[in-house]
Amino acid sequence: MDDRDKLFDLITAYGKYEDALDAIKKYNRADTVNMSENEMNKFRHIAGSALLSDIFTPKVVTALGNLKESKDMLVGRGLDDTLYDYGNNQRGIEIGNKFRGVNPQSLFDYIFKTEIEPYRTKK
Prior knowledge:
Distance between the termini: 52 Å
């Protein structure tokens, strides 16, 4: 694979990520999971990386996540936020590789049940 192929994969992956974001936003409805802003941030990174892992290699998904986090650092999001997001991206890649071919709704349900719901503060 030459550099042009790698660049094409990254551009294609970014477009797929934007599509994934729409599906992720629709999942977080008030009548279903109703995640907080922090929960949604975690979910978005895990779910986005998991969805992309069904299409692209872990290296491409990691590179895309690194580009996104580099951009966030440049706009002042801070190192702690970047490291947290990076860890969630990696968790998403692990889940995506484990559940290749699973429909997005089932994947989102799994991520919510294993990565978000157990950490909610009990009221």
